[in-house]
Task: structure prediction
Amino acid sequence: AQKVTQAQTEISVVEKEDVTLDCVYETRDTTYYLFWYKQPPSGELVFLIRRNSFDEQNEISGRYSWNFQKSTSSFNFTITASQVVDSAVYFCALPGGGGSEKLVFGKGTKLTVNP
Amino acid sequence: DGGITQSPKYLFRKEGQNVTLSCEQNLNHDAMYWYRQDPGQGLRLIYYSQIVNDFQKGDIAEGYSVSREKKESFPLTVTSAQKNPTAFYLCASSIAGTVNYGYTFGSGTRLTVV
Result:
């Protein structure tokens, strides 16, 4: 069955620190996509990245970077030089598998960046 | 601007009452979804619909009902049978009915039973 585990429930850092959010997944599919979403205090989930399992290159977007390692079934997310505006709940997700039209989400990691 | 509109943002319900949460999208997406979010529980799928007049139960459908009479609209009714309805409800939609493109989310409705 498809499963996403975000073992870190809450993380608290001081502004300008680097922080890594872990995501470990289980899937029965040979090809799949992985996602990260950000949920700020306003509540709406904001799409951050989609990664195809064929592409194991790390991705960098500004202060954000993602490390995908198929061998360990991990898709970790790093924020460099964190800012207060990065405070949010972050979710990792993957499709339900087997043609399922739903996303399966981890339980989320609440990140608090203190000034 | 295209997007998903959920209303109301906050909703209070007395025990034993049914209540309907609205979700409207102007993205021309085929598929729409309802998720429930509880503290520490992540997002759990209630119902989803890939096409008008058709919908499927998700993981926690008991006590909920939906309809999909129009492509743009996917209202969720929380019935009195739902034993613990206080939660944050998120509506989402996706392109062409394929989840591999990910979702666009609405801003959510926070339901409180009083």
